[in-house]
Amino acid sequence: MSAIPVGILGATGMVGQRMLHLLEGHPWFQVAFIAASQRSAGRPYAEAAPWRLHGECPGHLAGRIVSSCDPALIPAGVKIILSALDGSVAGPIEEMFRAAGFLVVTNASAWRMDPLVPLVIPEVNPDHTALLHRQPGAGAILANPNCCAIPLALALAPLHRAFGVEAITVSTWQAVSGAGYPGESAWDMVGSVHPHAGKEEEKLAIEPLKILGAPDAPADFPISARCVRVPVADGHLLGVHARLTGAPSAAAVARLMTDWDGGVAAELPSCPTPPLRLTTRRDRPSPRFDIHAGGGMAVTIGRVEDCPVMGVKFYALGHNTIRGAAGAAIANAELLCQQGFLAS
Ligand code: NAP
């Protein structure tokens, strides 16, 4: 198959850089358009976006001129746009691209709870893309979930299917890269932790329900979340306590998580099989050692143990800018391709 051209909005930010990095040598996609704000437009990429990942900015990107976010500038043949725009501007810009007939995969929270916008994790709810047909106009928008909602929903998916989830409490320890660049004030992060990570708690309480439910009927169980930003570069760790129907043992829960293959997503280049990696070490998962599991796309699960209050408890760790954002958007674009949405 010849490479499918994709456009990237917000290409200069933390998530945009990850997307460009992950798309280097991608088997299906090729970057045909990069755009950001007026601050960056017209400038060479390396100058507009000092490289914040390991290594250097790929040579062929460094001199590429950044465009403004204008659908009229998109080269012929591009049908799909991956957006890593700042949340404060994403809504109207992405709407403009949808109206111009593009399929937009967005990382921003603006669209996630819109009833006609599917909130998709390829392993969990690939069928929710049916909602795309119900959106008005020529184009459509698909949203990636929040960077903690993704590892939580992935961990719960096989449990909800097999037993049914009755209630969840979750605490998170979230990396600073989750707030973009420059992100949180150094005053809040150096030698401290910050017990108020924006609107993360609200998002984590509702997004998994939309993902784990049917397209028109969210799952119905309470989630109580506490989210804390910690001085770690990349990787969000979640401490989850779950009440499951029938009170299965921790051993049964661990077995189910280990055996889950992620369904049709196993055929997508960015989705590792299995999606959940169980560790039996008592000192893991840890951001330092485990965030790169499955190329940053696997969620590492550890300390699956019986809980005297809720029934079962475990830790889940995901790479926030890969599984939680850039890699999630690419995997969703692959899913759309697999389902024929990019066919001419
Ligand atoms: P970021 O580093 O602050 O990057 C924001 C991007 O938006 C930059 O490319 C910036 O371009 C562009 N932008 C800002 N204002 C603009 C405007 N008026 N017009 C056009 N472009 C504009 O943020 P990030 O961490 O990459 O996050 C990007 C999105 O992903 C956000 O919606 C965020 O909530 C979401 N997200 C992030 C993570 C994470 O772990 N970081 C996880 C999940 C979801 P300039 O460089 O030109 O200003």
Explain what this protein looks like in three dimensions.
With 344 residues, this protein is of the alpha/beta class. It folds into two domains: 4-146 and 325-338, Rossmann fold, CATH 3.40.50; 149-319, Dihydrodipicolinate Reductase, domain 2 (2-Layer Sandwich). Helices cover 27% and strands 22% of the residues. It is built from ten helices and twelve strands. The strands form two sheets. A six-stranded parallel sheet has the order 3-2-1-4-5-6, sandwiched between helices. α9 (287-290) links the parallel β10 (276-279) and β11. The protein is globular and about 60 Å long. The mean pLDDT is 96. The chain binds NADP nicotinamide-adenine-dinucleotide phosphate. NADP nicotinamide-adenine-dinucleotide phosphate binds at residues 10-16, 36-37, 39-40, 69, 84-87, 89-90, 107-108, 147, 177-178, 180-181, 320-321, 324-325.
Annotation keywords:
alpha/beta, 10 helices, 344 residues, six-stranded mixed beta sheet, Dihydrodipicolinate Reductase, domain 2, 2 domains, binds NADP nicotinamide-adenine-dinucleotide phosphate, six-stranded parallel beta sheet, Rossmann fold, 12 strands, globular, 22% strand
Major sheet details: 6 strands, parallel
Q: Which bin fits the share of residues in helices?
A: 25-40%
Report the portion of residues in β strands: 15-25%
Corresponding CATH architecture of the largest domain: 2-Layer Sandwich
Q: Low-confidence parts lasting 5 or more residues at pLDDT below 50?
A: none
* Number of structural domains: 2
